[in-house]
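Example record

One chain of 751 residues, shown exactly as stored in the release files.
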Amino acid sequence: MKLTKSISIVMLLFYSSVTFAQGTTEDYQRAYSLRNKFSNKNVFYSDVNPQWIADTNQFWYIRNTPEGKVYVVVNAETRKRKELFNHQQLAKALAGKTNQEIIPTELSLNNLNVNNSQDTLCFNFNNHNWQYLSRKNQLNDLGELPVPPKQKHWMETDDEKDGQPVISPDGSSLAFIKNDNIYVRDIKTGKERQLSKDGTLSNYYSSYIQWSPDGKYVASCKIRPIQKRYVYYVESSPVDQLQPKLHKQEYAKPGDELPFKVPCIYEVSTAKEIIPQTDLFASQYDLNNLQWNSDSRAITFEYNQRGHQVYRVLELSAETGDVSPLIEETSDKYVNYARYFRHDLKNNQHIIWMSERDNWNHLYMYDRATRQPSHQITKGEWYVRQVLDIDEDNQQIWFTANGVQPDEDPYLIRYYRINFDGSQLTCLTPDEGMHTAWLSNDKKYLVDVYSMVNKAPVAVLRSATNGEIIMPLEVADISKLEAEGWKAPEVFVAKGRDGETDMWGLIARPTNFDPTRKYPIIEYIYQGPGDQYVPKSFKSYNWYMTSLAELGFIVVMVDGMSTSFRSREFENVCYKNLKDAGLPDHMIWIKAAAEKYPYMDIDRVGIYGCSAGGQESTNAVLLYPDFYKAAYSACGCHDNRMDKIWWNELWLGYPVGKQYIENSNIENAHLLERPLMLVVGEMDDNVDPASTMQLANALIKANKDFELVVIPGARHTMGEDFGEHKRYDFFVRHLMDKNPPKWNEIDYQKQ
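Predicted structure tokens for this chain:
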């Protein structure tokens, strides 16, 4: 009897060790296979992306059916749907022209444009432009697509030297830049006249010249340029040669000098100059949006003060040269100019303006005469996200907002209509979910697509007046996805550091989840201010969470304080304090989740992220080693003095001072006690890769053990496929205390 009992216990322990194994070869292969199993190909009647047809009340979209793609057109007035064209005929015609096999249900017509009568389709296919006359079944090859011009890198600033000559309102003259000055040429006679005389190579006039509506004046900014900073990259393994290449990229950093602009007006007939005093725009981060008032008596422009604590809409009189503020935003922290919206009404008497001045982002009606808001259009403890359309004749605004509806996720975006006077706020998308909608040109209809992380997408046609459903369009079918083992992540809510404010996040579990097991926790973090990051819409596969969880982890993500779209106060926690990263909220949130779910092992918590998330994940193990036990950090801006100017001067302030040192991972490198893997692309064109290398140098000097992975040729990256595998192994090793499987044991063909 005792022998039998002993054997049973041994067998149970053996069975348990096999069943409860985590981080095994099988787990890795299953994790990699989810990319394919959970792809959109197993979701049908989803991804509705409607395109309204010109000025009609008809739109087309692609139905993703089990049999393939079907292009359909919907008539909003008759509520009828049909195929946009004969798929078999077009596929046959394309096959004949291209000598390729074209499957009718796999047509991909890029940049498709449909005329009002829907009998002419223009699109790109196989690197050619095509025109298809559907009634005649006639396909015309319009030739190869032109080679697109090389785009400037997004870090390059516009020197405003490449503008073309600008024709006067009456068509008689051209204004242009010559020898750094403003000239005007009579088109009929060819005679040129020089208006400005003081432009030089180091203080020149912008080529973006603006004529006044009455043609009497031209306006342009005089620009004093600066010596630009460049970041240099060595590409170790170029594909076209054996030897490395040296690259350089324009890259302004916090504290760098910036160009200085002065708006100037010239009377065309006399060359009289109107040059303003610069007191109201003296400390420039940026000066832009130069435009004439409709009465030709003044120009308006916008001034963003260095340090972002003042933002002004200014008016320069063409008659007196006086500059005065129309609108002024101030803050003791920062004016978040990324929340920008301004609309000058046609009557030239009012401006619709967006502001966070009452702690929430709202719309205001400004009176040009008084230079004060006449009233607040939207109001409440919620957040205007985007203005979609303005109907001045009927005095109505269509916009998106979050947080209006009580007792639900405050980040969910809905669509609204409101009158100029703030009356009749109407929700046009009343169903719970994250909404994306498309308004018809006549503002009568709205195509609404909505979902949640745990609710499949639904598409409907609504009235843009009251939000009533006119016609159902699609309900996504995820039955095949669920048959592959897909389960939605859980939306989890817990109080933050203040004990009052709800923090919203996600919990992802493996497909073979067993609540009797114990799971290490990994947090994916991207907590940079300026947005919110926890997904709210349906995703069949979450690259940051799904496969990592499948190895035997619980993967979480949460938006803590210092992210956006809750309130100004909620976001302002980040000011001069990026090292906070919402981590006090995150830790409390994770503890609350672990208290509810004992299978979450609060003693084994890891964290990873890229870019700002790379900075924050390293910061987590440096400052909170008792909670975070391991960190994987890719392409982190580990010292904000090394990073791009706009991100850092907005959140950390200007001038560059001790706050930059206090927030630096490099300054805190000596605190490292936990495992850390640093990853960087050698060609990172977003965050200077020197930031990661300087952190590595500081860790070496502090005699700290860490891992450094450099990806040849990679730019701003989480680590690509190689780095993903390294990340899997890193957390298996340090949170599961197991040796991960050898790479050659994993059959990637099963992906």
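Notes: DSSP finds twelve helices and 43 strands in the chain.
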